[in-house]
Write a structure and sequence with these properties.
single chain, alpha/beta, Rossmann fold, Dihydrodipicolinate Reductase, domain 2, 2 domains, nine-stranded mixed beta sheet, six-stranded parallel beta sheet, 15 strands, Gfo/Idh/MocA-like_OxRdtase_N
Amino acid sequence: MTKIAVIGVGRWGVHLLRNFLAHPQAEVVAIVDPHPERLTVVKQQFNLAESVLLTTQWSDLQTVPELTAVAIATPATTHYALIKDALAQGYHVLAEKPLTLDPTECQELCQLAERRQLILMVDHTYLFHPAVEEGQTVIQAGKLGELRYGYATRTHLGPVRQDVDALWDLAIHDIAIFNNWLGKAPVSVQATGTVWLQGEGKEAGGRGQGAGEAGGELTARFSPQSPIPNPQSPVPSPQSPELADLVWVTLTYPDGFKAYIHLCWLNNDKQRRLAVVGSLGTLIFDEMSPSSQLTLLHGEFERQGNLFLPVNQSREVLELKAGEPLQRVCDRFITSVLQNTPPSISSGWVGTELVKILSALTTSLQQSGQSVSLQ
């Protein structure tokens, strides 16, 4: 049995709490959130036992006997200090994405976890989506033939963030999927953006207090011993003082494969769609489709003289396993803790690679789309 504490019970932390409460090999022994009203709500919502510690103070966890692990669902600016402190105290850690906002900090935390022989896992939920898992199987089996290029669109009308731009708000999901499907990371990246809503005078984009989907605003009072930043304070950023509403991303992989990503929070046409095109067909992950989230479109060209004629065309809706992706994340974390085996999917090193890519894309965005090498 893994005794676990959930840190932050905002919008996403509540879902983590729900899954850990339902897990047969997990025991939630503490919940930490700086807002007492949230603690009251979750106590009533989940009918928590009196034995579960509800506190606004991170330091109170030191009084919990046999605490094994913590799940951190807090603003990204607090991640580094919280995770470092948790690892130093001997806790396994599941952290909401992104791991931190700085690749150097991410690497430091991964190395610390390895030295302490502790699990550090990042909640990149899409990597546990049945469609993403099946898509990886299809591509690695060679069913698309020679891979040619990929594209993704992640658009909606709001919410418009005031702490990060559309790049840091949205891109991490599609980058994680492309990397997972291809089994490799890009060697260079490019990004261009357009600003309509928030220009000069606004806090710099590209990094900020809530990059990812974390909830539960932590304040410095959480840990008097650790310099956890106040999320109400401005966060320094290397990006221009403009928050891009529209971002175009290009990822170039070692074999020359390119993936193009369209990101916008100022578009009524809500899309969550990603595809990889090969010589034998196209694989499409359409999260918004109620009946066919993963589709394989078969088809290739047959050459007749100077003509290229489409042949072998068909549409195959792929059957997916049942299961909530976040439940799979939580189960993988608990299994990794019990077996003391680092997860191959969504490890701290995977999270570090994604933060490194986002940081390089921010540099490209600052430089009007100049290619930035990751090698």
